[in-house]
Each structure stands twice: as C-alpha cells, then as structure tokens.
C-alpha cells in the first residue's frame, strides 16, 4: 500500500509538523507585532476565533511562496 509515496503515517506526521511550525511562527509574529517590533496589525487577534489571523496569514503566504 505504501508504494512510491512512503508510508501514510509519514505524510500525516509531516502535515502535523507543518501546521505546528506555522502556528508557532504566527504566534511569534503576533508577539512581535503586539510589542511594536513589527506592524501593529500583526499583533491583533480576530474577534471571531481568538487567533492572530493576520500573523498566520502572513506566515502562510511566505511559506507558500517559498515552496513554489
């Protein structure tokens, strides 16, 4: 079943690791924005979900551009 792609658990592990790194990096950007080291907009939390949406979006845009 694994074939050329490797074991499915490896893909799940890589996916989880990518999410954890993205969330950690967005929290770092959030803290830096909140403390005034970066744009104040990165230090805002969304009302709906309580997450640093702008910081997370910035990380995802950068990681997507680097992976292409």
UniProtKB/TrEMBL annotation:
Keywords: Membrane, Transmembrane, Transmembrane helix. It is found in: Membrane. The keyword Plastid does not apply. Pfam families: AA_permease. The keyword Membrane applies. This is APC family permease. It is a multi-pass membrane protein. Transmembrane segments: none annotated.
């Amino acid at each position: 079943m694994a074939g050329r792609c490797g074991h499915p658990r490896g893909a799940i592990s890589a996916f989880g690791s990518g999410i954890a790194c993205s969330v950690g990096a967005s929290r770092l950007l959030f803290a830096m924005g909140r403390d005034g080291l970066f744009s104040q907009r990165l230090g805002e939390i969304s009302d709906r979900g309580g997450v640093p949406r702008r910081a997370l979006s910035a990380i995802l845009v950068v990681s997507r551009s680097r992976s292409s």
